[in-house]
Amino acid sequence: MISKKSIIYKVICLILAIFMLLGIPSNSFAEGTDEVLTATAPTMLKSGEEFGRVLLSWKSNYDASTYEIYRSEGNKKNYILYDTVYFDSPSCVFQDFDVVSGKKYYYKIRVVSYMATGIDNKTGLIKHDEVKAESTFKSFKKIRIKSSKTKIYSIKALSKRRIRIRWKKEEEAAGFEIYRSTSPNGDYTKIKTVRATKKKKYKFIDKNLESGMTYYYMVRPYAMGIAEHEYQPYSSVRTATALLDKTTITSTEITGEDSITLNWDPISDATGYKVYFKVDGAKKYSKVAILKGADKTSYTMTGVADRTKIYFKIMTYKKLEKKVLRTVSDPVEAFNSYYAYEGETKEQKCMRIFGTTTYQGYKSASEANAHMATITIRVWDLNASGKKYGKNVSLTVNKAIAPTVKKMFAEIYKSKQRIPIHAIGAYSYRGGRTEHNEGLAIDINPVENYMIDNGVILAGSFWNPKKSPYSIPLKCDMVSIMQKYGFSRGFWGNRKDYMHFSYFGT
What we know:
The chain is mainly beta. It has helices at 4-21, 346-354, 365-369, 402-414, 477-484, and strands at 43-50, 53-59, 66-73, 80-85, 91-96, 104-119, 126-134, 138-139, 143-144, 152-158, 162-168, 175-181, 189-195, 201-206, 214-224, 229-231, 238-241, 249-256, 259-264, 272-279, 286-292, 298-301, 309-319, 324-328, 332-335, 372-382, 388-398, 424-425, 441-444, 449-453, 456-463, 488-492, 495-502.
C-alpha cells in the first residue's frame, strides 16, 4: 500500500515540475549556481489539548521540504526527534495521540530544506543531493494533558498470577481500551477493549502474568465517531505486582512407624519449596527441608514420635534477579497415629481398617482372608513346675491393625506382671456379627476367662484371678496396655466376656 507521505511527496514534486514548465527561473534549482540554501523557521506556532490529544499548528514556509517535530516528556532537556511531517499548505497541523493524562509535554519544531538538482528523466521526480538547510528551533508552549474523568479506583493482585482493575464511567463513553506496560515510561500495549453498558462500574482481570513483575495500567474511554473512535484522555496510571501463589498442602499420610509424608500443589513458576514444622506446644516453626524445582511436591519427614501432633507449612519461593519472592501455605495438622490408640473415634477406626468412615464387615471368608496377616508375638506361659517362660505365638489379625497388635504384645511381654498366656486366638470367620470375622478381636485363655450372661456361662469354665494365673484381672498391666492401643474388654451390661478384647468394643 502507498503511504500518505509518499503520495504527498510525489504531489509536491509534480507541482514543482509544473512550475518549471511555466517558466520559473532556473535558479529555483541549485545546479550550476552558487546559491546558498536557507531554511526559515516556522511562525505563528500554536499548541493545545483536546479529547486527550495534543494539537500543534503553525504557518507553512515556502522553502520547507519537511518539518521535524521534537518532543520531551516532563522537562525541556530530553528532546528527541518524534516525527517528520510533510505539508505544503497555508497552515500545518500535527496531532499527537500518544499522550497520558496528567503529564507535561514540550514540543519544538524546525524546517528542513533540501537542495533540488533537476528532474530525473526516467522517473519524472525531482532529484536531490545531500545538501540541506535547517532552520532554528521554535518552541511551542508546554502542554499538560488534562486528567481523565475515568479513573482506576482499585487495583489488586490476585492469586493465580492475576491482577484486577476496577474503574468508573464518569462520562458518556461507548467503550474503554485497557493498556498495559511493564515499565513506567515504557511502551503501553492495548490488551483489552470493554464495551460500555448502563453500568457505572467496570472491572477487568488480567491473567497469566509473571509473578514478581510489576505492571502499569491505563484505561482510555472512547466515543463512537462517524468514521472512527473519538478518544478521550487516558486515565492516570495505576500499578500492581503479580503475586507468587502460595501452595496448598493436599494431604498428610502416615507412611511408617515414625514417618509422615506431605503432598502439596505445584506452583508452576516456583524455584522451589521449604518445609517447616513445629510440634504441638512449640512456639516457632523450624525448617526441615529445602526442595529445588517447581515439580518437587512431596516430602517425607522421619523421626516422628508415636502419638505426636505436628503442624506443617510449605514456603514457596522464586528467585529473581535482585530479590526473592516468598509465600507460605496455610498450616496443616498431622498426627502420627501409625499405631491405634485409646480415644480414636469410630470414624477414625473405620478409616484405619476399611478406608472409609463406616464399618464395612466382610461378606465371606474369602474376602476376609484377603485382609488378614499372620504375625509372631512373644508371650509368657507356665511350665509344668509353674515357672514362667517366654515363647513365640502366631496370631492372625487384620493387616491394618497388625503393627499395633505386635507392638501391644511387645509391651505386655515387657510389663512387670507377666500374665501367662497358654491359648490365644483372633481371626475366625464365623458369620454373623463379630469382630472376629474382621480379625479385630482377640480371645485370651478362654477356659479361665469365661463369658457369662446374667450368671449363665455361655463359653469357658470360670474366671478367678486369685486362684488361676491364667484368669486376667480387671485391673492389670495387660488390660491397661490393651486399652492404651484402643482394645476394650468385652463387658456389655449383664453380659461379660472376660477373654474378649476388641478394637471396636463389640
